[in-house]
Amino acid sequence: MSLDSPNSSSSFKRRTLIGFILAILTMMATKFLTLLSQWIIGFYLEPQEFGEYGIILGLLAFFGAFQEPGIGRIHTQLRAAAGNMWRRSIIVSAFLGVFGATAMCLASSLIYGIDSRVTLMALIVALAFPVFGLANLLKAKLEILEDYRTLAAEQFLRGFLTNVLLVAAVLVGFSSYSFSLSLTLAVVISSMYMFYKTNRVSNLKIASMDDYEPYSKVVVWSLVGAILLSMSIRSDYFVLSLTLDEYALGLYYFGFMVSTNVGILLTQAIRSILMPAFSSIGSDVTKSEYFFKSCRYLLFFTSFLSVAAIILLPSAIHFLWQGRWDEATIICQVFILSLPLRLLTPLSLAYLESIGEWKIRAVSLAIDGISLMIFCYVGAVLGGLIGAVVSCTVQRGIFGLVPFFIANHIAERKTEQDKSRKLHVDLLLYYGFMLLLVVNYQFFYDGKGISSYLIDSYPLIFGVFLLFSVVFSRDLYRDTFRSFATQLSFGLRKIKA
């Protein structure tokens, strides 16, 4: 039976849906734990201590790729995780992990001093590099087997351990070291779980890739892409660690985490579920069609999530931390504006990975990562902390979408149809909403407080956004309600039966 036959298509949708439901449930549970841990440590740690970990994130922008060089993604794309090449991948991943860990520690000691707190934190994080690389290879095997339940369990376990250990370490008194300790211990323990689970399925037959000649070339491009991906995610921390003090960097990190925790978890879900799902489709045309649909629905739902978060965040931050982190409010709101646009990038990368376009993926990430560093530096020099936040958000809305536009062009070329027009309309609609917020703030903010301003302005802004959304994206509303009605009817029939 072809992968593109009706029955296979239905099976694919069901498997992907189950995987995404599990990912979403995991995301919700992990999100709750993350918010709870951040709420607790927000009372015990100062911005400077958050800033010290922000410096570590800056180092990870260049060295973090060695713990996840993307070799597992190659095996997932080829649906192969056995044979001599698989064993070679294990050796290469372990070597890259050790090399990256050593290089990061040396860089930290040269920049910040061998006896500094930052260097010790870097050493603690580096200990997990080789383990994490091997665990990601085992994760690829579970992705090929489409064992979404185990993948969701591992993601939840790592999130649970990270947050619980972080709170415990802070309460004991490890201060900023708590971030590094919790991260490393969580990676090691969750990796042991991956070893255990994959040993139980090792007897299943998985295709070998011994005859895959361009292996070395693809691995090089995968590593380059992993470094560039890490830069596109974290290079702003490296730039800001050189241009801002630790207090301002701590506010930046805190605001980023509050506003984008949902985005980070959704990104992990997209990379864990959609890339193997895309790879399992035989036809490039079908992959492209699913890519367009996934982009539209992601943009549709996260737009409403962002609209709601913008109004709720000021009051929520003030209430949760009793005014302790009110300085981070505007940072959170500016960051949340780019959330829907930011999430199109991992979805686009998943599509490019599934069709084996590793070189194009690397080029698009290079544009994204380098432009982020430039925008962040210019913003920080000209406007300090707020300037950096605004410039990073602008970059996400322009150059940050380069991977999306490249993937969109390739998908359109493969389908030989103009299927992206509605997606572009949805994108323009959200850009219009962002512009409306900025213009309204510029001309009507009375200085009485950002929270009261948003409460007064929100009904009109949201009403305009909803009206245009219904008019231009009515097919998404129709399909969503139709799908919900179908599932509800099916469930009621099963109950009656």
TrEMBL record:
The chain crosses the membrane at residues 20-41, 53-71, 91-112, 118-138, 150-171, 217-235, 247-266, 297-322, 328-350, 427-444, 450-472. It is found in: Cell membrane. The keyword Membrane applies. GO terms for cellular component: plasma membrane. It is a multi-pass membrane protein. It holds the Pfam family Polysacc_synt_3. Keywords: Cell membrane, Membrane, Transmembrane, Transmembrane helix. The keyword Cell membrane applies. PANTHER family: O-ANTIGEN TRANSPORTER-RELATED, PST FAMILY PREDICTED COLANIC ACID TRANSPORTER. This is Polysaccharide biosynthesis protein.
